[in-house]
Amino acid sequence: MSIPxxxxxxxxxxxxxxGVIGGxxxxxxxARRVLQVRPDARVxxxxxxxxxxxxxxxxxxxxxxxxxxxxxxxxxxxLCRRGVGLLREFCATHAIPYEACGKxxxxxxxxxxxxxxxxxxxxxxxxxxxxxxxxxxxxxxIEPHAAGVQALHSPETAIVNFAAVTRAIAAEIAxxxxxxxxxxxxxxxxxxxxxxxVATTTGSHTFDRLVICAGLHSDAVARLAGGSPDPRIVPxxxxxxxxxxxxxxxxxxxxxxxxxxxxPFLGVHLTKRHDGEVLVGPxxxxxxxxxxxxxxxxDVRDLAGTIAWPGFRRMARQHWRMGIREFSGSLxxxxxxxxxxxxxxxxxxxxxxxxxxxxRAQAVARDGALVDDFRIDHLxxxxxxxxxxxxxxxxxxxxxxxxxARVALE
Length: 410
Known about the structure:
The protein is α+β, with helices and mostly antiparallel strands. The chain folds into 3 domains: 16-101 and 156-231 and 373-410, 3-Layer(bba) Sandwich (FAD/NAD(P)-binding domain), CATH 3.50.50.60; 103-155, no CATH class; 232-370, D-Amino Acid Oxidase, Chain A, domain 2, CATH 3.30.9. Helix content is 30%, strand content 26%. It contains 10 helices and 21 strands. The longest helix has 22 residues, at 310-331. It is globular. 48% of the residues are buried.
């Protein structure tokens, strides 16, 4: 009597550990995408604050950008358009309000018309739906209190609460088995062959793959993993006023200026928010700390690091006039409101009151150039997001797809 062969033992797949540094919308989006691609992975998110979305994610204007400004073919253009669709779908699934209130980019003078035409051509090349150039009368049908000789209308530019989106992602990944560890500051990163050990204030973790999404501290954390010092994050504070409730009727959606290519920042604009507030701003002044949300917050080490960076000094020499103008707007409400009044002439000095502030993590190269496109570096088992400025929040779910597709999850 023959004895049948024993069945082959089942193959046991070794546990695969993935770490993500950063509890903003991008870090959580990366964790979510890892679990979509490899549901059996053990995913751990490390966040130094006690709550999620405490910095750029929770302090931005809430605009879901349509993809108007970005060079066709760039990561920004591609991932913004993809990100809009993913974000809209996510919000619908999780019952998060998403309002396509529309944006009007206003040319104040005939000299700005060619730049507006260029924006229209970029938006069309990027596949932004519904964009059109309109004259003054049509513009006033959209924004009755707006000025200008011509405007670009983007009807599907939207607003959302990005902090609420982040919390919803966190709940989703926690239900899928991920760990989200807050009040956990990273102190050291030690790659060791195909794995990497991360020391934190609450203990040590070893991962097969690590993704750094550290926002305002992305350069410093990347350097812990052996990354280049170039580019360096230079923090710029954006200060807002808000319209008094009885004057919110002056703005129906979003009213923006035509970008001036001589300057690195967009300039003051008027933005309806998801909560009904209307923001006026921001300016852009050098923050005296990575998390310097007011003039009283100074971190000597952060400030010294900024000033010592050759790229900052080169950038400052090039844009010092703009810096003086932005500094003036920070200290004088009348000067600030005067910039916004160009677009909404009925706006009075007393129509605004102090509002929130955020800090933008602007990557500056050693030669003084502002890094414009998304930048993602790969350092063995470590992937570091070095630059994810606006439209980073809009694009977050698509950036996560892009990153995870390039990380070997085996």
